[in-house]
Description:
There is one protein chain. With 231 residues, the protein is of the alpha/beta class. It is built from 10 helices and 10 strands. It has a 6-stranded mixed β-sheet, with helices on both faces. The chain has a 4-stranded antiparallel β-sheet with strand order 2-1-4-5, with helices on one face. It binds adenosine-5'-diphosphate (2 copies). One adenosine-5'-diphosphate is lined by residues 13, 16, 20, 38, 40-46. This is ABC transporter ATP-binding protein. GO terms for molecular function: ATP binding. Belongs to the ABC transporter superfamily.
Amino acid sequence: xxxxxxxxxxxxxxxxxxxxxxxxxxxxxxxxxxxxxxxxxxxxxxxxxxxxxxxxxxxxxxxxxxxxxxxxxxxxxxxxxxxxxxxxxxxxxxxxxxxxxxxxxxxxxxxxxxxxxxxxxxxxxxxxxxxxxxxxxxxxxxxxxxxxxxxxxxxxxxxxxxxxxxxxxxxxxxxxxxxxxxxxxxxxxxxxxxxxxxxxxxxxxxxxxxxxxxxxxxxxxxxxxxxxxxx
Length: 231
Ligand code: ADP
Ligand code: ADP
């Protein structure tokens, strides 16, 4: 009953001899935050990009709800999986409302529904819609912009969130606030989340379960953050 299952996945990038990941097997349960932690270059981002099919594996299989992802329509995947990266890159010439409703707009919801969803998402991001919906990204602080990035990934209410060092570029005090806010949000939303970080403290704080990656594959899966301390 894994929500996401990686079965002996390998990814060898074109023109490289050493795989970025290999023999990578991992289960992510519904409603949990599974943290992938490990040093830079060990294949964390690659793993996320494999799950949402930005890239294709060169070996092994990936399943969502026991369905081979290679058989799922890419548009449907985009609706089911939200993706947050460190530098979210809001579109500078679009308003905050347009930015935050990127996925609903892509999915061509009708105008009223998009506007209502944009306001909901602004609330989630802690921004008053009256004040912020028609403003532009450059008027946001770093913390606010990253909140918009997280809310944008929730645009079409996906079942799964892939989060690649989402708070990595934020100052430590704001980062701690965003972590806490996100954990509160997750307590309600109960998304299935794969959360990537190279920061062990963040892993312990955010993870229901933690998988430690060495070079290229999982070296240890832990049921709870507490057990990482004994490792
Ligand atoms: P992490 O997210 O853990 O820092 P990555 O998944 O970004 O690691 O990278 C894993 C390995 O794959 C690294 O050796 C990196 O250089 C390599 N890599 C990542 N993206 C590409 C790419 N597009 N082409 C070739 N090699 C890549
Ligand atoms: P946050 O905790 O949301 O990241 P900050 O402490 O960085 O907030 O910023 C405090 C306030 O200053 C924010 O509510 C934001 O409205 C405002 N602010 C920060 N940077 C800018 C900016 N470049 N333009 C306009 N307002 C800004």
